[in-house]
Inverse folding.
């Protein structure tokens, strides 16, 4: 019943509200962009320049000559090498308590990670997934390569 | 019939010989920049490896096949060179101190402010967070206001030298987060401060 009400409320809201531009739910910012770097958001792909905001839900891709470095709000640093696909699945960070969660997926390519305040506050807070594994992060720096050997 | 079985076995053998690993996943733990090495758990289809030494590695050739090992620093640099080269600058922070009950920097901290400006200037798309604090002299609401005023004062100084205001976030935490814990109403110069985070 509760679900039905929520569903109805959501439906009403969707039809009734005039689209407003809410401030973007920022998770981080691009600090380094070399070669082709794109951010896919809501089905739209756009080139990512230095300073571009990265949000939860975004998929960041690099071309054959591309690499990208992103600093997140909790001071986590993620940087990807060429031919990489990195999805930011979830990002929540309370800057006062340092609580929240950060989940990302490297679908292919290479990734270097320096974890930030989230992982420091709670060892469960940060996870990096690949198609073959889930990585649990306990305050650390690490490297990830994932992919089909034919790629 | 026997020949058929033989052929089937040969076919299987050939298939096995040709079977390439499904994946070339490699996970490597690095020593931390602060000298401490953390830990990383690698979970694949119920199989787990925990990496807790510098350059400890796990290879996954198919889901559920986790092979622990070690890579050399050189190999790590070779495989991950581009990703490592794209790593953003490490976030850093500064503490500036204030004169008692005022939003005026101490002379030493005024000098340090120049270093802060230089550091910000070196970074692409810099983000700055300025958090003001006070000691425990005076009522809590007074200190809330004073701490925010201190943070805003520093922001204004940064804006004056050309750093865009929209890159700077200010907060006041009052007397709640002393650097040096004291009883109430005790003057403590080290708590009259702003912390500036730059990333």
């Amino acid at each position: 019943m509760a679900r039905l009400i929520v569903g109805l409320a959501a439906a009403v809201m969707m039809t009734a509200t005039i689209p407003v531009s809410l401030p973007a739910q920022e998770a981080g910012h691009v600090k380094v962009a070399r070669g082709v770097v794109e951010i896919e958001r809501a089905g739209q792909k756009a080139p990512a320049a230095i300073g571009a905001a990265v949000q939860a839900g975004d998929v960041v891709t690099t071309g054959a000559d591309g690499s990208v470095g992103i600093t997140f709000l909790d001071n986590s640093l993620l940087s990807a090498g060429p031919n990489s696909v990195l999805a930011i699945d979830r990002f929540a960070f309370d800057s006062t308590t340092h609580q929240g969660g950060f989940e990302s997926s490297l679908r292919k390519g290479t990734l270097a990670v320096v974890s930030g305040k989230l992982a420091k506050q709670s060892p469960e807070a940060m996870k990096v997934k690949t198609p073959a594994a889930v990585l649990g992060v306990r305050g650390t720096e690490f490297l990830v390569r994932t992919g089909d050997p034919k790629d | 019939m026997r020949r058929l079985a033989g052929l089937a076995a040969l076919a299987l053998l050939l298939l096995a010989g040709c079977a390439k690993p499904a994946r070339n996943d490699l996970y490597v733990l690095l020593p931390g920049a602060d000298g401490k090495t953390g830990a990383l758990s690698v979970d694949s289809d119920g199989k787990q490896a925990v990496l807790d030494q510098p350059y400890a590695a796990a290879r996954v050739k198919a889901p559920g096949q986790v092979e622990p090992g070690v890579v050399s620093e050189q190999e790590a640099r070779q495989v991950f060179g581009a990703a490592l080269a794209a790593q953003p600058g490490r976030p850093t922070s500064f503490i500036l101190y204030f004169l008692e009950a005022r939003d005026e920097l101490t002379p030493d901290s005024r000098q340090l402010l120049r270093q802060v400006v230089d550091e910000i200037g070196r970074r692409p798309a810099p983000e700055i967070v300025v958090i003001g604090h006070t000691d425990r002299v005076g009522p809590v609401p007074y200190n809330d206001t004073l701490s925010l005023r201190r943070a805003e004062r520093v922001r204004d100084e940064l804006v004056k030298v050309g750093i865009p205001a929209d890159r700077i976030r200010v907060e006041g935490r009052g007397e709640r987060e002393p650097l040096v814990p004291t009883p109430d109403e005790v003057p403590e110069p080290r708590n009259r401060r702003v912390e500036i985070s730059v990333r």
About this structure: The helical segments of chain B are 2-18, 73-85, 107-122, 140-160. Chain B has four helices and nine strands. Residues 55 and 72 of chain B are 7 Å apart (CA to CA).
